[in-house]
Amino acid sequence: LRPSVPAAERLNAWKTPFAVEFDNKLQSSLPNNLSQSLRETISQALAPNTRSTYGSGILRFSEFCDKNGIGETDRMPASNLLLASFVAEHAGSCSHSCIKNWMSGIKAWHEINGAPWHGEDRMVQLARIAASKKGSSFSRPQRPPITRDQLISLRSKIDITDKLSAAFWALALTAFWGCRRLGELTIPSPGKFDKTYHVHKAAASFSLGNAGRPPSITIDIPWTKTTKGKGAKVVLTARDDNLCPVGAFLNHFLVNNKVPADSPLFSFIDDSGVCHPPVKAKLLAFCSSNFSPNQGKLFGHSFRIGGSVELLLAGVPPEVVASIGGWSSNAFLTYWRKLEDIIPLHVSQAYDR
């Protein structure tokens, strides 16, 4: 029932008696090619990284059931009591977000196999509230933002006529001024490029602007964490300094002009003519290697956080910053840093109206 497969494949590969019966029902109701296509299509609704994260939840739940002698037929559909007990078992041993991801994985596993989900039951919710309180000590510290001064320092240490530097400099400024997650602009590893999820070179367009509007670049992102397949638009506005994302972007296109149009957007070509995609870990290593040792560790979200803080400090209205970064809820507020500067600035601007 539970073959050894990569975490991302557990949603489809790991079974219960209920799941086996559901598969049989599918196959008896539909031709084999249609039932197989249906399962594959449903699983593709989740991004690869999400499927891997959810696979961890299925593993933890299976281990919990094995440890406590829970029968195979009782694992799906899992009762409200079983789900609440699973949460309670891990309360105080990991963070709330960890348990939340595990429960999301178990829920997706149920949904893919046509099983009822009892995770919204009040008893389960109470267990999750208690786990959130007990797990507060496991929460990660706030990610530090990358700052404008750090970017200025980075620019002073690189040669943007170099192909790799041109690509990564444009990528860094796009992530910063566009307030984007790095996963929306990079790929996880070489060979993992997928146009369904990753932005390619032909997705960018340039606008010259006019007397009342500066030049800009628009990038159509095919997939985001929140909008899924609806994607999003990233709009970069020209600046009159060395941190201009439009200038960096155009320089990248000029220096790396031989990169094919269907390649990842921030790809570069080395001296031997080999095209390299923009891998997230390599960008972080590139930036970190050009920062001072005392500037601390750089994280993927540092660009998104730093860009939003810089725009807010520049007086850009919060609702515009939220739109730039693709925030549609109050989750945007968790990214605010330097509140002691941001709040007085915007309150004083309101007083002056």
Automatic annotation (TrEMBL):
GO terms for molecular function: DNA binding. Signal peptide: none annotated. The keyword Electron transport does not apply. GO terms for biological process: DNA integration; DNA recombination. It comes from the Eukaryota. The keyword Oxidoreductase does not apply. Keywords: DNA recombination, DNA-binding. PANTHER family: P CELL-TYPE AGGLUTINATION PROTEIN MAP4-LIKE-RELATED, PHAGE_INTEGRASE DOMAIN-CONTAINING PROTEIN. This is DNA breaking-rejoining enzyme. It comes from Amanita muscaria (strain Koide BX008).
